[in-house]
Amino acid sequence: MKHRKQKRRKPYRPIAHFLKIVCCMVLAFVACATGAIFAYSRIVGFETQHEVTSGSQMSIVDAIIKRDITLNVAFFGVDGDETRTDVMFVVHFDSKTGNLNLLSVPRDTRVTMTDELYNYLSENGMYIPPNATCKLNEVHAYAGTERGDYFSVKQLEELLGIQIDHYVKVNFEGFRELVDLVGGVDFYVPQDMYWDMRDTDGDKAEQLVRFRRYVQGDIERVSVQQDFLRALMEKILSTDTLLGNLPGLIRTAYQYVTTDISLSDALKYAPYIEDVDVDRMQTATLPGTAQNISGISYYIEDQTASHLLVQQYFFNDEAMAQATSNTTNSKDLAIEIANGSYTTGYAATNQQMLTASGYQVPTISTYEGEKTSYTRIYVREDGVGQDLLRFYPDAQFYTDPTMLNDGIDIYIILGTDE
User: Fold this and answer.
1) Is the four-CA dihedral 105, 111, 117, 122 of positive or negative sign?
2) What is the C-alpha separation between 137 and 156, in angstroms, rounded?
3) What is the per-residue pLDDT across 10-20, written as a single tens digit (0 to 9) for each?
4) Of 360, 353, 352, 308, nearest in space to 330 by CA
5) Phi/psi zone of residue 32: left (φ > 0), alpha (ψ -120 to 50 degrees), beta?
6) Which of 353, 380, 379, 372 is nearest to 364 (CA)?
7) Which residues contact 162 (CB under 8 A, 6 or more apart)?
8) pLDDT tens string 253-286
9) Torsions phi, psi of 195, nearest 5?
10) What angle, rounded to 10 degrees, do the helices at 346-356 and 303-310 form?
């Protein structure tokens, strides 16, 4: 814990807090919808015995006493005409554990329209695609201007199996303006963009986050978006940037952000926004693969791997807190996953899940030895791999280099109960 100089306690000013919330709404959009509004990070030194409450159900009394809450917020990035949602994220925040998890959903994800959307289109004589199947980013366009936001949220809820408390929709024009407002961002461009990227101003930033010519398609595109917007968020959250650009940030929020977060909601969430720690944010992409169907390029969700990832990111907060509190990070290490269960293809499913969260899993195999109900994780040295507990909370760790093949740093043997 950092030592801080003692300061005079400032009087509570509701208007100032509201302005801070508005600024954070801008940050949420800018940070590729990383949810800076709700990037509350860890609530240090506060404990409560109250039951955890969903953010959309909390009262002003809950907020005053800082009752534990969980919050799921959907973020959509749209073009100037606001027809399609080209960028989509869902951010999960848990005040009790301090978890802040961001799940990216590729725009080309193939979905079947919800029954509610199908009935709405049918009753209003609107176009319904064959078999009510479309890309996720097209739901907003099919539903129309008045109901696009609502049905986009409902489609995400059905896809992920979660409840979404709020949404924030932002315009790419506002994204460009905001990047220019803070003087651009220093960022390593991962590959040739086919145009000059030396000065990452607003226009170049938009080109970067919307660039699609990656070898791995949407997966790599989303990864670059996450990295860039994390860097942008870090810059905006610096004190000098906030103080120097406050009027512009507020103007951008009002001009380019559409949300169902009301003034009363903003005031309720204010007590949870005192600390923002970007380093603790966990990011992942919905597991799946690109596939061409009837001449149309889709992203096909891996339902089993997605279910596992959603459980970890939105429902397993205690395990996530235990993992993220550890300083080790295994994302730069080579992992082998061996199927020690009775389920065919389970190693590949777990490979998808970990890869979607940014881990390196070049090898999967079948374990021929004794099966156990719990997962075993073998590492070369003590303390490595503890962050994997968020995926395997009951795993047993062993430090035994002899169990690892050449070029492998972590060896995971899946248990029969996983």
Assistant:
1) positive
2) 10
3) 443 433 333 34
4) 360
5) left
6) 353
7) 72, 90, 310, 314
8) 667 778 888 767 776 776 776 644 556 678 888 9
9) -155, 165
10) 50
